[in-house]
């Protein structure tokens, strides 16, 4: 089996790589990542390092937004069985500063990869979408067929990726599955995300900024559970197009999240308050019945357990 994973040096990608090698020890895996400097590139080098010596592993350090389908075909001459497309410029707030870069990497990159998939006859394409596509819809918990009201350029690029996938499925018959991840956390979490930022501030006795009144809430999903959902989607073959939430079905307010981190670290947060941030939605909350039904998805990690794993990782890696 030959798998193509994009974004494998990133947070979720390197956890997925480990799980793929555990589940498919003989697989050939081609990984694409441009080591985008959105956060410290040394973290990504560290993430990918254990896989560089694996038999059948190949790393292509290329920018998907700037690599044509023809170039991809030359770089990857062997037949690919399945694509796991996780590469993207992530982060809501920076996308407001530089929407063009998000468009090029996330929409242009996805289109290049879809064209490569069609040209080379890849049968299954799994796309990392995001809960941010629901935006300010307030019908909670969100089911996949809810109205989508994205409010950031990042969210729009994820929605565009889903829609491109739908068009390619219709025109070319390839199976396309979009997985809408809900705020993913766990060891190695991106440094720009709340749990990482809050833990760092609390353990370093630095002030921590809460934007808005602390009542915004998020459905935090442990990275190990997300990986189980992705592995489930790799085996899914009952239809040729699906959009599926991968969340935890548990939404917690920012202030309660901070209290939970305080409890685990045994330290108090120094809170300061700032204005609401543009692009941030008030609440995310996933209905995960479709993922349970179609993928056998069953997130097992309680927030307290996952936060403890993150804090342990943070203290031994800082
Ligand atoms: N972490 C979350 O909470 C979350 C939530 C919803 C969706 N997602 C999606 O899941 C995927 C993985 O997220 P993550 O948190 O691991 O982010 P990450 O930034 O750690 O990983 C993304 C990887 O993609 C690479 N990349 C970016 N642009 C690229 C390009 N043009 N060409 C090649 N590689 C490129 C980056 O270098 C990085 O290693 C992303 O598509 C993200 O949008 C993440």
CATH homologous superfamily title = NAD(P)-binding Rossmann-like Domain
CATH C-level:
Alpha Beta
How far apart the termini lie comes to 37 Å
Strand content range = 15-25%
Bound molecules: nicotinamide-adenine-dinucleotide
The biggest beta sheet reads: 7 strands, parallel
Mean pLDDT: 97
Number of helices: 11
SSE series: EHEHEHEHHEHEEHEEEHEEHEHH
> Do you know the CATH architecture?
3-Layer(aba) Sandwich
In the residues, how many domains can be counted?
A: 1
Query: Helix coverage percent of residues?
Result: 40-55%
Find the structural class using helix and strand composition.
alpha/beta
Rg, rounded, reads 19 Å
The strand line-up of the biggest sheet is 3-2-1-4-5-6-11
Low-confidence stretches: none
Q: Judging from the principal axes of the Cα atoms, what is the shape?
A: globular
Number of strands: 13
User: What is the CATH topology classification name?
Assistant: Rossmann fold
Q: Which descriptors apply to this entry?
A:
11 helices; binds nicotinamide-adenine-dinucleotide; Rossmann fold; two-stranded parallel sheet; alpha/beta; seven-stranded parallel β-sheet; globular; single chain; 318 residues; 42% helix
Can you characterise this structure?
The protein is of the alpha/beta class and 318 residues long. The protein has a single domain (2-186, 220-249, 285-300), classed as 3-Layer(aba) Sandwich (Rossmann fold). The protein has eleven helices and 13 strands. The protein has helices at residues 11-23, 41-48, 69-75, 93-97, 99-120, 153-172, 194-203, 223-235, 254-265, 289-295, 303-317, and strands at residues 2-6, 28-32, 57-60, 82-85, 124-130, 175-181, 184-185, 207-211, 217-219, 221-222, 241-246, 251-253, 270-274. A seven-stranded parallel beta sheet has the order 3-2-1-4-5-6-11, sandwiched between helices. Strands 7-10 form a two-stranded parallel ribbon. Strands 8-13 form a two-stranded parallel sheet. Strand 1, helix 1 (11-23) and strand 2 form a beta-alpha-beta unit. It is globular and about 55 Å long. The mean pLDDT is 97. It binds nicotinamide-adenine-dinucleotide. Nicotinamide-adenine-dinucleotide is lined by residues 6-7, 9-13, 32-36, 38, 44, 63-65, 86-90, 105, 109, 128, 130, 181, 183-184, 190.
